[in-house]
Amino acid sequence: MNVLIIGSGGREHALAWKLAQSTLLGRLYIAPGNAGTSMHGENVNLDTDNYAALKDFVLSKAVGMLVVGPEAPLVNGIHDFFKADPELADVMVIGPLKEAAMLEGSKDFAKEFMMKYNIPTASYATFNADELDEGLAYLKTVNPPYVLKADGLAAGKGVLIIGNREEAEAELTAMLRDAKFGAASSKVVIEEFLSGIEISCFVLTDGRSYKILPSAKDYKRIGEGDTGLNTGGMGSVSPVPFADAEFMQKVEHGIIAPTVRGLIDEGLEYKGFIFFGLINVEGEPFVIEYNVRMGDPEAESVIPRIKSDLLKLFIGVGNGTLDKEQVETDPRYATAIMLVSGGYPGDYDKGKIVDGLDEVEGSIIFHAGTKADDDGNVVTNGGRVIAVTSFSDSLEDALRQSYVNASAISFEGKYYRRDLGADLKE
Ligand code: AMP
Ligand code: GLY
Question: Which mutation among 279, 280, 291 tests ligand 1's pocket best, with the greatest number of atoms within 8 A of CB?
């Protein structure tokens, strides 16, 4: 089977690395990919938003499966395009149809869905631009901190957590009246603040049955001790020690199973990953958000722990026979440390030469923002540059191994957090 992966980050490198190990794989293409994905397949310079060009490519290369890494193409309906075109309808697409992708594409849609199917989540109310006064009045009725969420996709920046009411009122006004996040904030969800520790859980579903994948914790803030600005993620650890059998039982029965059942009841066609962003409030899991894709940097610790053939699982998703498949996981810890460009998540330079990759031993390197320059050097090409993933029976040893190799790799301005996993050690 020839496969085309869409995306260019560490998640897509992890997917390419894993799919390349499958005996079922024919040719692997990644659009656009990075300097790491090109070790496992062919990077292609293809504008995947241009459906006519995408169709030509898929037909000319006899691509049998499209694996969509990020959410935006799914929310924009890439799967629907394939399904509706008779020449493409047989191509398996890993990722939900547009309507189901609303679980990530609209916070209000996701909240309504959770309410309808009794899935635990923070209490909330939604306001549109004509309801600013009602929204401001609502803020007076809830306790701080105030959680304001732009309804639509806002590149991870649409959630504001604000300590005082005057500021929350100003932000709500900016979002609803002044379109602070453009069309994404034409509706705003105001949500109860939940206090606890976050965890990312993942399933693969064919729309009928599901398989639970390893869970992970990611580290969103730039600074040690979870301080400073939010990033795309500074690393991840899998498994998560507090997600024991009892907790995961609650997640499966209270959250995963009702979500998949709800999708079926609503007639929402879903084939792909569901990412449950959860918060553990005194032992009880609540949903903070749904994503319709794998996490990044969670993929860089979760995917290596899947021992089964991922392409075989994807084919089960495509054929609707996932219930016949088994997911075997590596019991060891996997830790992914993200090396980022100096200045990230603010402004940063690109094009810095990355050295030391050949010296890495005992870890897996997943490229995120890298590319090969004209002289064949690997150079930085984004904020998040490289993830260093290591395995061990103990969390401490896996982290130690990742940190040894994180320091062996060099590029001007390199930064990484040195405290990953510290919050999980017993
Ligand atoms: P999201 O973009 O939905 O992932 O939200 C970004 C981050 O905001 C989450 O990872 C949480 O850390 C935080 N967050 C979102 N909703 C809540 C909530 N209701 N209570 C506390 N923290 C929240
Ligand atoms: N690591 C969080 C995300 O992928 O959205």
Answer: 279
